[in-house]
Amino acid sequence: MLLTSLRLAIHALNRHKLRTALTMLGLIFGVGAVVTMVALGHGAEQTVGEDVRAAGTTLIHVNAGNYTRGGEESNIATGLGAATTLTPADAEAIGHLTGVRRVAAGVKLRAWMTNGAGRFYGQILGTDVPFPQMHAWTFPRRHRFFTGAEVASRARVAVLGRTVAERLFGRATAIGQSLAIRDRSFTIVGVTNTSDEDQVETAFVPYTALQDLLDISYLHTVAVEAAQAGEATRVAADVAALLRGRHRPHIDAAMERLRAAGLTGNMMPRNGTGGALVPDDFTVKTQAAEALTKGLYTSVAAFILANMPKLDAVNLEEMTGTLERAGATMTALLAGTAAISLIIGGIGIMNVMLVSVTERTREIGIRRAAGARRRDVLVQFLVEAITISLAGGTIGIVCGIAASVALTRLLEWPTSVSVAAVLLAFAIAAAVGVFFGFYPARRASRLDPIDALRYE
Questions:
Q1: pTM of the full predicted structure?
Q2: Is the pLDDT of residue 248 over 80?
Q3: Residues 6+ apart with CB under 8 A from 218
Q4: Which of 32, 63, 158, 304 would give a disulfide with 399, using CB separation of 3.0 to 4.6 Å?
Q5: In this structure, are residues 229 and 316 in contact, taking their beta carbons and an 8 Å threshold?
Q6: pLDDT value of residue 296
């Protein structure tokens, strides 16, 4: 029965192609608006999340070596100074910890960067592929970051901050050109749009290539991104515990050298039993902690760091509230736009179906006289209304996806079309057909067969 009703519906709609197309316009615009708005909402939510992460609330910095000036006065274990024990294997191990999203090994160098007559003295940071995502970077067209294959092959490629690119190349494009660092040539593959004051004056290269340049196998830093902002301090503590276990032989050997030199008694703070506290050969700090304690006395900084878990909880609560409010506003806007568009489309369907019932009154009378039941007539016209809705909804989904892609490419607005949004739009189109098609279908099914046969 449903297949027969579907064939009759398609035949009836084909008899009035223009009217059917005009009827579907309301659904096309409504469903297209729903898909586009959902895509914009998801894209905006992802962008806000990336901006929150870019603010440093999830970033943790691990640095080789450990020296805190005045640490002994605040009972902070310190004194091992520089160290060469932080390795790529440590970075890989950190990446397996619970709550860690991304890890980027790092090597640092301050040196002259030259390109012909252009010269710039600044920071060269050797890093890994996840670094741009950790800082929510964007790149202009044709610009990119280096790849995992380039890091593995120790390729000499570079990505420049805006200031470095302007000083070395002026207004000329930097892509494809080269710069020299300590007589080694690096090919430029991108210029980042970051606005960070330090990063705009930095050149970024694969950490493996910078290791080759410095003839070292260890790391200077490891950048860690926590999965959630409220867990940054907890993840930092886990990272410290992991490295403490991995570096225990190096730490014990360093302490033995200090004991042999008679330095532990003067340099090391004491624990509760009177013994010397054992320092690490690394430091671990969240970026939020570094920002809050920058320039402060060690004792004041230690007090602030002791209360960092509470600060993390406040940050997480505030960010969650902000995202929830933004999501509620976007949902309300989406609901209002969708409701207006779909109601207009539904009214159009109801109007056309009422006209169709009037035009086909004799047809209904003949079907009833031939033995069709009221339910059969109801299903026939209801299927016809749903067919119009689903056809319009399908076209609207395609138009919504196309509009989302166009907004991203032309206006660089972030959009994200999800499968759930497409299925929701399709379900809404079907629901509109049922809701606005039921009354005309019910009216057709309740026609008296004798009156319908006499209708001219």
A1: 0.58
A2: yes
A3: 64, 84, 85, 86, 87
A4: 32
A5: yes
A6: 44
CA–CA separation, 372 and 215 (whole Å)? 89
Task: State the Cα–Cα distance between residues 384 and 23, nearest whole angstrom.
Answer: 12
pLDDT at 67: 60
Residues 318, 165: Cα–Cα separation, whole Å: 37
390-to-8, 66, 383 alpha-carbon distances in Å: 16, 66, 10
Across residues 327-332, what is the average pLDDT?
64
- For residues 188 and 297, which has the higher predicted lDDT (pLDDT)? 188
For the cut 80, the answer to whether the pLDDT of residue 100 exceeds it is: yes
How does pLDDT run across 58-70, given as a tens digit for each residue? 889 999 987 655 4
Give me the DSSP letters along 258-314: HHHTT-HHHHS-B-TTSPBPPPPSEEEEEHHHHHHHTT--HHHHHHHHHTHHHHHHH
> CA-to-CA distance for 382 and 385, rounded, in angstroms?
5
3-state SS, 6-71, equals HHHHHHHHHHCHHHHHHHHHHHHHHHHHHHHHHHHHHHHHHHHHHHHHHHHHCEEEEEECECCCCH
Can you tell me which residue has the tokens 């004051």? 197
Q: What is the mean pLDDT of residues 237-262?
A: 82
Q: What is the DSSP-derived secondary structure letter of residue 81?
A: B
Burial (CB count within 10 angstroms: exposed 0-12, middle 13-18, buried 19+), residue 307: exposed
Tally of residues, the chain: 456
SS3 state at 119:
strand
Half-sphere exposure of 152 (CA within 13 A, CB side): 3
233 CB-contact burial (10 Å; exposed 0-12 / middle 13-18 / buried 19+): buried
Q: How far apart are CA 38 and CA 337, in angstroms?
A: 11
The identity of residue 192, as a single letter, is T
Whether the pLDDT of residue 317 is over 70: the answer is: no
The domain limits of the chain are 2-50+317-454, 63-308
Tokens at residue 336, please?
Answer: 């209002």
- Calculate mean pLDDT across residues 196-223: 94
3-class SS at 184? strand
Retrieve residue 354's tokens.
Answer: 């009422």
